[in-house]
Amino acid sequence: MKPDHVIGIMSGSSLDGLDMAMCTLEDTGGQIACNIVETITIPYSEKWYKDLSSAPELSGFELMKLDASFGEFIGHEVKMWMLGKNWHVDYIASHGHTVFHEPALGFSTQIGSGAHIAEQSGINTITEFRNADVAHGGQGAPFAPACDRALFPGYDAYLNLGGIVNIFLHTEDDKWLAWDIGPCNQALNFLSRKSGHDYDKGGVLASQGAVLDAIRHDLIAMYPFHGGYPKSISNKQVQNTWIEYLDLRKEDPLDLQTSTTLAIADMITLHLSPVIKRPAKILVTGGGAYNDHLMHQIRRLGLDMGSNYDIPLSQLIDHKESLLMAYLGYLTMHDTPYGIHTLTGASCDCIGGVLHKAVR
């Protein structure tokens, strides 16, 4: 059997850009072998950043217009990327950009019309991966565990420092738990822009400020540990908590950057220490893995746990979520459940995804 050739696409909550990964996936006798052929990130223009960040405030009519135009944009970028490459692509697996994530109300909304991606690219496209899990009472998140255990064995935990920080870990009593911990790069990027930067490269800004303990404690208190039960955090929650709080502060932006960075490290430690009670090998991905100051604080605070935080090659840091989408697309096309319902809280193991057929 020949491998599937899949382009996985992700637009994360930190709005760094559109991440795409050309992957091959193949069942090698019960184990899925995956290879990343090539990756690319398309930075968002100022207009796309503004349009996507303001999407939750749009009318239904305007949101549907944005859904269509963002799908056209994604499909066009795929087509441009493939020019001059001798690639055969079986299908695209696109997460889209999350606008609403309200599992308690029974829905999760990602824009980036799959029909328009298929029309622009000429490639069959799968979208809407979260809704099946939500329809069965789950959080529709986290999805990363679907591929972590399968594609990156040998770790006790998987920490993702994206727009929102989340964890997937193996407990001493042989259970796997996963949950969203709290805000991460969404807040740090917001503060960086107040200092005239798109983001805090290497954590240089955070390394220059003073720690404001009152700010740090306020931030931590908004996202307490809930025992590792299924919990997902929406972009709206981040906006209504940390972003709103930080936007009203009058302190020096560098001091806020330093205090928020330490609050993230504190929050991670407070969430993990009750559960990881042994030295653990932890794989760290997401843009926050490049933030040297944040990683220094995480490692410093985690010394008592004796944990080893392993940062992989940059391609995996940047494109693990794109790879995840390719993997979920593969499972969808091969009628294989995702195997995460015990982590999301869904009543059964689901197969998500909606297939949009291209005209060839």
Q: Say which CATH homologous superfamily of the largest domain is assigned.
A: ATPase, nucleotide binding domain
Can you summarize the main beta sheet?
7 strands, mixed
Note poorly predicted spans.
none
> Shape from CA axes?
globular
Total beta strands: 12
| Proportion of strand residues | 15-25%
The pLDDT mean sits at 93
Return the CATH topology of the largest domain. Answer: Nucleotidyltransferase, domain 5
Number of separate helices: 12
Residues in helices, as a percent range:
25-40%
CATH class label of the largest domain: Alpha Beta
Describe this structure in words.
The chain is of the alpha/beta class. It folds into two domains: 4-140 and 319-356, ATPase, nucleotide binding domain (Nucleotidyltransferase, domain 5), CATH 3.30.420.40; 145-306, Nucleotidyltransferase, domain 5 (2-Layer Sandwich). 38% of the residues lie in helices and 22% in strands. The chain has twelve helices and twelve strands. It has helices at 46-53, 60-82, 114-121, 131-135, 145-151, 185-194, 213-221, 235-247, 253-272, 292-301, 314-333, 341-344; strands at 4-11, 18-27, 32-42, 91-102, 107-111, 125-127, 157-161, 164-170, 176-183, 281-285, 308-310, 354-356. Strands 1, 2, 3, 4, 5, 6 and 12 form a seven-stranded mixed sheet that branches. The longest helix has 23 residues, at 60-82. It is globular, with a radius of gyration of 20 Å. 48% of the residues are buried.
